[in-house]
Amino acid sequence: MAKELQWQLNGDPRFAWRDRLPVRGVDRFFTFVLDWNTYAEAWSMSILVGQGEQAGTPLLRGVFVRVGENLLRHHTDERLPDGALVPVDLSGEDRDPGRDDMGSRVKLVHLTAEEVASAA
Prior knowledge:
Blueprint: E1 3-4, E2 14-23, E3 26-37, E4 42-49, E5 57-64, E6 84-89, E7 106-111, H1 113-119
Antiparallel strand pairs: 1-7, 2-3, 3-4, 4-5, 6-7
């Protein structure tokens, strides 16, 4: 079942939160980091994993958030979540998120591997 990732930016140009997503059938915690890139006028996302001494190990770093594109598509690290992580424009205009749009007009949705396979 698709899952909407929940967070509140509060106008910050950098925000991090933890969420649980499946990796080969087992739920794991990830740290998601969103950064506003003033030069590119775009959001980028990083995903970190790990606990204890391994906490904060980057699995994905600085991927630009583009509406409708699977943010995991070019990455093969087996520790990344299964399925797809897709930004969705709730206005229906398919516009990439501006500085104040993440978490309001644009949400991140995780699709399971089964949902991705059935949509293909």
